[in-house]
Amino acid sequence: MRIPVSWLGEYVDLPDAVTAEHLHAALVRVGFEEEAEHSFGVLGPVVVGQVLDFADEPQSNGKTIRWCQVDVGPSASTGSGPATGGRHARDIRGIVCGASNFAVGDKVVVSLPGAVLPGPFPISARKTYGHISDGMIASVKELGLGEEHDGILVLSTMGLDPEPGVDALEVLGLEDFAVEVNVTPDRGYAFSVRGIAREYSHSTGAAFRDPAVAQPVEENLSEWRAVAGSATEYPVTVDDQAPIRGRVGCSVFVTRVVRGIDPNRPTPPWMRSRLKLAGIRSISLPVDITNYVMWELGQPIHGYDLAKLTGGITVRRAETGETLETLDGVTRTLSPEDLLITDGSGAIGLAGVMGGATAEISPSTSDVLIEAANFDPMSIARTARRHKLPSEASKRFERGVDPEVAEAAAARVAQLLVDLAGGTADPLGSVRKDLPARAPIQLRADAASRLTGVRYTPQETAEILTRIGADVAETDDGFTVTPPSWRPDLIDSASLIEEVARIAGYDRIPSELPTAPPGRGLSRAQRLRRQVAQVLAANGATEVLAYPFLTEKQQQAVSGDAPSVRLANPLDAEAPLMRRSLLPGLLEIARRNLSRGLVDVRVFEVGAAFLPERGEYGFEGRLPAGAALPDADTLAALHDSIPPQSWHVGGLFLGDAVPKQPGQPGVPAGLSDALDAARQVGAAVGADVRFEAGGNPALHPGRTASVLIGNTVVGVAGEVLPALAAELNLPRTVAVFELDLDAVITAAPAEVTPTPISGYPAATQDLSLVVPAEAPAGDVLRAIAAGAGPLLERITLVDDYRGAGIEPGTKSLTFALRFRAPDRTLTAAEATEAKLSGLAAAADRFGAALRE
């Protein structure tokens, strides 16, 4: 929200020479976030000039320039000294100008040498087209007032006739600046100068003047409130047959009529400059007035050409297949949920979002019907999103507009049309209001102190709530508080306490951490999950968080036809399924990083996977009302309505696992990286993992392993199918792993006993065996380990050879064995005996033979 400071100063007292830093600091104190400062970027000297004479001079490039003589006020050297020839000495400047939309005698804006225009574009005297141009005659665009660049700004077109030499920045309002703050969705009242002025008053104690009740608006209201039921009442009907969740779409509808306006009059500079600072483009005087009042009071306003309306106005829901051409020139097919403004000819506006083209105010409009209404936030939000049509009006309505300000806003627009557009206020109009009474809230006198830890006296609490506009009545144990109409976010005692803390100052809340009760802390599962993440990160992987929502294709690629949880109202209609696996999210993250030039990727995620045992879940029972607790059957039904959600850990590796360096080529990531990561997860929880040949729909059938702890399968590791990798624009080799972390933790030992470092030396031996080609190397390794007995400390597969020198259908496996005794130094004979025992076990199970 941008707030021009001169505008803000009309409704709250500001200090002299106020700065953006001061305003931002004051608004931050009451909960707004500082965004930016905006100004026109024009620095003086910029003055009003009068064209005394000019000569058209055609140039060789085909362009015609004008050599102008411009009066820019009294001469600086003589001031307003003695008259010469009946006139005081004047400062006459010779200026080259490329525009031709002015005549002798016109008043223009002259940027003198030393001025700086937006860009920045410094002005200096310079030689051009054979003349010394002593300044520049500026256009609207060059001054930052708009985008028009059809010629220079002639002040008479804006209804201005100042004296030459007057400061043009002051005349045009270009000295003003605006501060911008971020408004949270629950504080829609702050999308107005009225709301920000009130908040500045809360922060600083400065006097606030509510523009909604300021004169002469109140005089107009007193005159027009008498139209209800009279001959001058404009017919308005609200016929909402399809309210959303029982909430009628329109609760207030106010109309006013102003006749005989001149829509072609220029928007006055003060209004135009304020709208520009607020970020609003000037369109025409009537439209600018409605935008100005919306920004001032927070009430969206719409104006209709009264001559184009037929019959009265009806507010209703759209009919199936009905269409409307909106002001942006788009014909929209409407939904039965869309709330419309209609007349006898059909739809003339999309309520609370955008008006229609049929009754648009045009340059020939004379009589205007002003509409100020209040619409249901949910209805407007749905319509704006359905049609992808956000607007300043919908932004306010979907956050909640003060329903009591519509009359004042309509009166304010009428007043400005009379004052600026030459119109005449007509008694024709209407006031339709169907507002429920605001519900009072009970608040204990000590509630704010109990919740925040700050001592607020009952008097201070009552004074703060009264200051924000609430009606406060004392009760035996506290207050009955009726929130103001512009604060729909105040719905319970907690929201009132938040207001007390906010206005009194968050700095009063002590920054003290509570003492944790004894016997609490992380559970075993939480602690081990953190250890797993820390170990993977310590080994060079980056933790990521992927969206848990998948498309049908992504889910099927990794989970086949297994049942999935389908969202009833997904954020993305193309991704309605909750993930059964972390792998699709990791692949998408890899694809995105690779597309941005990051070719070496090592990432992991710890997150939930949703593993339903059936297709649909949901609670169909009835929860007990009030403070009653659900019984055992209800709790069981609630539990059954939730699909199983298991913690998983997954990782992905592509590119170079070891980067290229002098004298050594890069080592590409592959299956071994995924297997190592699975081992790291096991080590983090104190469990030994092993691998067996396995499969997964998304992984290479020949390079995929099932991950086991003991005899429990806890996950999978392998390389992505090359076809799937190509479809995602990934390299051919992408290694991944995914483990059911809950299963890993369950299978892990409850206590991990550290192995002491032995003081005795180790004996190392190698063992090369020839085994059938189909024999899994891991099973051979485990057979050797079982046969070698307790002296074997470690066994590692170091080579897998197939080729010349061994029989077809066999392979050679070489293992590195390390033996150690806990109480003595082993002899070579003992180590050899243990190795041969392992060989015997492998020979017995797989027919292994010692390779010669």
UniProtKB/TrEMBL annotation:
In what residue span(s) does the FDX-ACB domain sit? 758-851
Which PROSITE patterns does the record cross-reference, listed alphabetically?
B5, FDX_ACB, TRBD
Q: Give start and end of each TRNA-binding domain.
A: 40-169
Q: Which UniProt keywords apply?
A: Aminoacyl-tRNA synthetase, ATP-binding, Cytoplasm, Ligase, Magnesium, Metal-binding, Nucleotide-binding, Protein biosynthesis, RNA-binding, tRNA-binding
Q: Which SMART domains match?
A: B3_4, B5, FDX-ACB
Q: Where does Mg(2+) bind?
A: D489, E498, E499
Q: What cofactor does this chain's UniProt record say it requires?
A: Mg(2+)
The reactions it catalyses are: tRNA(Phe) + L-phenylalanine + ATP = L-phenylalanyl-tRNA(Phe) + AMP + diphosphate + H(+)
Q: Which residues form the B5 domain?
A: 436-511
Q: What class of enzyme is it?
A: ligase
Free-text remark on how the cofactor is bound: Binds 2 magnesium ions per tetramer.
Please give the CDD domains that the UniProt record associates with this protein.
PheRS_beta_core (cd00769), tRNA_bind_bactPheRS (cd02796)
The keyword Ligase is annotated on this UniProt entry: yes
Q: Which organism is it from?
A: Lysobacter korlensis
Q: Name one Pfam family in it.
A: FDX-ACB
Per the record's keyword annotation, is Disulfide bond included, yes or no?
no
Protein name as it appears in the record: Phenylalanine--tRNA ligase beta subunit
State where the protein is found: Cytoplasm
Q: Which GO terms describe its molecular function?
A: phenylalanine-tRNA ligase activity
